[in-house]
């Protein structure tokens, strides 16, 4: 589920959100995709990970354009896609994330959100760490500031 082509809503939930721009859709698609990619990295999504994804989505200004409910619905749709065909879902998620490459400020927000989702269930496991490193690579961001690798480059 992509936000591209969807009508934005304003803060009252009606169509025609003021202040909307096309970058909002790219940001939300990347955010939802990164959160789902990391949450599902170990093969399942915990309640804590979903709550963390929801909390992160609520903090993003672009979320107000489409509404938190639609963002969570997009997250759940992507998780179901991971359950049905993880390879295709990974490709879709990575394609959405890649659209933010070259936009480091928005990219950092996406990676920070993915990191919060990863540790929501009590720790950062290897699969989640690898997923975050993949997101950093897609966005051309150094993973060290996000705490997923040691300062000397060790994983």
Helix content: 55-70%
State the end-to-end distance: 33 Å
CA-atom Rg in angstroms: 15 Å
Uncertain residue ranges: 10-17
The major sheet is characterized as: none
Q: How many E strands? A: 0
Helical region count?
Answer: 7
Q: Kindly name the structural category.
A: mainly alpha
Percent strand: under 5%
| Order of secondary-structure elements | HHHHHHH
Structural features, described:
With 155 residues, the chain is mostly helical. The chain contains 7 helices and no strands. The longest helix is centred in the first third of the chain and has 18 residues, at 22-39. The radius of gyration is 15 Å and the shape is globular.
Keywords:
155 residues, mainly alpha, 7 helices, globular
Brief rundown of the structure:
The chain has 155 residues and is an all-alpha fold.
Give the secondary structure arrangement, pairings included.
Blueprint: H1 22-39, H2 47-58, H3 63-66, H4 68-84, H5 86-98, H6 104-119, H7 126-138
């Amino acid at each position: 589920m992509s936000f591209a082509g969807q009508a934005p809503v304003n803060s009252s939930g009606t169509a025609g959100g003021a202040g909307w721009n096309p970058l909002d859709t790219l940001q939300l698609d990347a955010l939802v995709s990164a959160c789902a990619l990391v949450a599902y990295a170990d093969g399942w999504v915990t309640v804590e990970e979903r709550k963390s994804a929801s909390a992160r989505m609520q903090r993003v200004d672009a979320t107000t354009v489409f509404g938190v409910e639609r963002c969570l619905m997009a997250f759940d749709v992507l998780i179901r896609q991971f359950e049905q065909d993880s390879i295709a879902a990974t490709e879709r998620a990575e394609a959405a994330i890649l659209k933010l490459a070259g936009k480091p400020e928005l990219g950092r927000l996406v990676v920070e959100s993915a990191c919060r989702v990863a540790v929501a269930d009590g720790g950062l496991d290897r699969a989640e760490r690898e997923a975050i490193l993949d997101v950093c690579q897609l966005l051309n961001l150094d993973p060290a500031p996000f705490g997923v690798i040691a300062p000397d480059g060790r994983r």
